Amino acid sequence: MRQLIHKLYSRGGLSRDEIVYLLARLDAGVRKELYGLADRKRREKYGDKVFLRGLIEFSSYCRRDCLYCGLRASNRSAERYRLKPPEILDCCREGYGLGYRTFVLQSGEDPWYTEEILVNLIQEIKAEFPDTALTLSIGEREDRTYQRLYEAGADRFLLRHETASPKLYQTLHPSMSFDNRRRCLKVLQEIGYQVGAGFMVGLPGQTADDLADDLLYLQALHPDMIGIGPFIPHSRTPLSGAAAGTIEDTLAMVALARLMVPDALIPATTALGSLDSEGREKALKAGANIVMPNLSPIAVRTKYALYNNKICTGDESAACRHCLELRIHAAGFSVDMGRGDSLKSFQVKRLTASQSAQ
Ligand code: SAM
């Protein structure tokens, strides 16, 4: 077992069978070693820095019907809200004043925000805060829209692949296409975005083979960011009675992702913190290096309910930032409020510069 983990640390690769074998034999000792090596790898790549991103959850409307998500269109009891562009800009202003240099704009798939509205919003944010990076997490759109949003100034795009199992994907996303999700990720990369993919751990029916495929897919895609969180049931969804993913399984996947895609930025997700009060600190110690404090207005926070018992819904943005900073320091890391671009994006920039110099 230890040999396998050390092989992964030094060479970065395991076969599907080896990953499945490893997942079946993770006892406390092996886990400790795995987390330790993932932490070492992340320190080699990014040092002890944890990058903070200001998260603005700007709309809880969603046209999709993902079986696991509290925002799904069929959830008639979900409370819906939309922040208008001036309100989103106000959140950015508050965040900028608190020191954030990355804003993540996330929402359900809400067509109210047309291409035009988003282009104008992005241009306004980038004009007012030119030294910030802007990340979008708004789901699937036309290729042309992705292109226009990039040209307007968006730098990054988060679109989790959710699961690498075509069968499980189709069951969980009745009106969506497994192939199109992956195609979108490729298109986003080709346009030039720094791209984030990722998946949930502990989905009903998910197997160790599926999780191994998630990791192998990420290794092949080589995204800039990797979001991994436990599935947590929401009481008003068809999966309300399902068990949540475990903290241990999620941490193991975070550590394996760090070893298999060493230069990725990996968030210690809110879902991990919601499942275990120390979940985000544990993730940082297992290879994660991003935390995304909430900048949304307090009045709407509880309405962005993807799952039950989501944390950080009641704190002022300033208090949220302060609390996370204390937690990060206590866990043995330092806070970096810079843009925090991925190492891959610097390599791409260098390559493009040397090609155009030739
Ligand atoms: N609509 C955008 C999209 O599809 O990419 C972004 C918003 S979506 C709500 C953000 C992420 O929340 C999803 O990619 C999914 O992995 C996660 N999520 C949704 N419901 C969840 C649940 N019940 N437990 C854990 N994570 C969940």
Strand order of the largest sheet: 2-3-4-5-6-7
Q: What is the architecture at the second tier of CATH? A: Alpha-Beta Barrel
CATH class: Alpha Beta
**Helix count from the secondary structure assignment:** 15
Shape: globular
Number of strands: 9
SSE diagram, text form:
Layout: H1 2-11, H2 16-24, H3 28-46, E1 49-52, E2 54-59, H4 85-97, E3 102-107, H5 115-128, E4 133-137, H6 143-152, E5 156-158, H7 166-172, H8 178-191, E6 194-201, H9 208-221, E7 225-230, H10 247-260, H11 270-275, H12 279-285, E8 290-291, H13 298-301, H14 317-330, E9 334-336, H15 343-357
Parallel strand pairs: 1-8, 1-9, 2-3, 3-4, 4-5, 5-6, 6-7
The structure holds S-adenosylmethionine.
Keywords: 4Fe-4S, Iron, Iron-sulfur, Metal-binding, S-adenosyl-L-methionine
InterPro entries: Aldolase_TIM, BATS_dom, Elp3/MiaA/NifB-like_rSAM, FeFe-hyd_HydE_rSAM, HydE/PylB-like, rSAM, rSAM_sf
Protein name: Biotin synthase
